[in-house]
Every structure is written in C-alpha cells, then in structure tokens.
Amino acid sequence: MDEKIEKLKEWIDDSDNIVFFGGAGVSTESGIPDFRSQDGLYNQEYAYPPETILSHTFFMRNPKEFYRFYRNKMLVLDAKPNAAHRKLAQWEKEGRLKAVITQNIDGLHQKAGSKEVLELHGSIHRNYCTRCGKFFDAEYMQRAGGVPKCECGGIIKPDVVLYEEGLDMQVVSKAIQYISRADVLIVGGTSLVVYPAAGLIDYYNGKKLVMVNKSVTPKDAGADLLVQGSIGEIFSQI
C-alpha cells in the first residue's frame, strides 16, 4: 500500500470525528459530468454557457431553455453510488464519520446509505411550486414536458442553488460547526474554486487536513496530507 494511503488509513482508524467535504469529482466516477474537467459541461456545445443557463436571472427569463438544459445535463436519475460514496457511508455506520458536506446535488451519498449529509447547493430530488410551495420529486420533473407547472399554475423550481442565489445559512452554519470540531477533515473531488462553499474548509482547526484529488487545488499547500488520484480507488484501498 502507498505510504500516503497508509497514513490516511491510520488517521481514519484512530478517529471517531471525521468530516468529509466533497465536490463534483466524487460523482464523476458515477458517470455524472462536472463543470471544469476536460469532459465536463463547460466543454460541451450549448446555446449558452452553463453558468448563464444555471443562473436565477436566466431561470426567470427563459425557463423553457433552462429546463431543456437541466433535464439533459443535471437531472441524472440512473446514476449509482460509487466506491467513495459507499466507503463514507460505511465510516459513518462504524461511528468514525460525523458528516458529509457536499457541493453535489445528485443525492448519491444518501443513496449509498449516508445519513448526515449537508447539501450546500441543494438537491435535484427536492422541487417546489414557486406559487403554493407544493413538493414534487425528481421523477415528476423528468416526466414533465417543457416548463413543469403545478396544478395551481405556478412554475416548479428545483431546490438547487443557482448562480446569483445565496446558500441556505442554516446548512452553512451546521457545516461550519462540523468542520471546526473535526479531528480529521478529508476534502475530496473538489477544485475548491467555487465560493462561498470552498471557504468553509478554512474553519478547520485541526492538524489532519487531507486533500484527495486528481488535480491540484489552491488549498493544497495547507494540507497535512496530500493524496493524488481517483477518490474511489483511493478509498477502496482503505
């Protein structure tokens, strides 16, 4: 076993207060494209850039085009949890992991069995009528054609944080509590360039900050342990 993975295994075995902070790279191994990699959404042809389509202004002005993109690229319901999701759920079950804090909206952590999941950017599995507040699941959104409407006539909106929208401060506050109290903080599958989410790891006060990524991030220099590679493959070895 690689020396760095051996060290990570040692830290995990010795801890009952691990927090995981993850991004798109955790789900790419389940076939869900990210925004910034070579095969990500930013590198695919579309009428508008993803960050324009996934903005609050665009949703309000052009919901039909928003939903065409959303269903094609974001509403991935057949994806299965991968080795990373399953390992995190296992650690939680064993009493080692306190929480998963994710920037992903796919619900794969919950599908793998994780219970304490803080979704910073919301979830495709929660959708609500902008007029009456009625709840709709992801399957309804997939079946609905064009702009999904409630029986009251209101447009249904995914409970995902669009560009120009703020994060849920209750979720942020809870994430800060978990991170600030953690013994081991594992950060994986994230470029750490999307703020304010990326700034949350600055609240970590411990001496076991682990970065697990295929590529470099702006926070690598502050890591106590840097493990480069596929997060699923690395977690499978622990």
From TrEMBL:
Query: Where is the protein found, in the record's own terms?
Result: Cytoplasm
Keyword list (alphabetical) reads: Acyltransferase, Cytoplasm, Metal-binding, NAD, Transferase, Zinc
Query: Where mainly found?
Result: cytoplasm
Q: Catalytic activity, per the record? A: N(6)-acetyl-L-lysyl-[protein] + NAD(+) + H2O = 2''-O-acetyl-ADP-D-ribose + nicotinamide + L-lysyl-[protein]
Q: What EC number(s) are associated with this protein in UniProt?
A: 2.3.1.286
- Family matches, as Pfam families: SIR2 (PF02146)
Residues that bind nicotinamide:
F35, I105, D106
Name what cofactor the protein needs: Zn(2+)
What domain of life does the UniProt record list for this protein's source? Bacteria
The residues annotated as the active site are: H121
Q: Which residues bind Zn(2+)?
A: C129, C132, C150, C152
**Note on cofactor:** Binds 1 zinc ion per subunit.
NCBIfam families associated with the record: PRK00481.1-1, PRK00481.1-3
What is the stated purpose of this protein?
NAD-dependent protein deacetylase which modulates the activities of several enzymes which are inactive in their acetylated form.
List, alphabetically, the HAMAP family matched: Sirtuin_ClassU
**Family assignment?**
Belongs to the sirtuin family. Class U subfamily.
Q: PANTHER family in the record, alphabetically?
A: NAD-DEPENDENT PROTEIN DEACYLASE, NAD-DEPENDENT PROTEIN DEACYLASE SIRTUIN-5, MITOCHONDRIAL-RELATED
By what name is this protein known?
NAD-dependent protein deacetylase
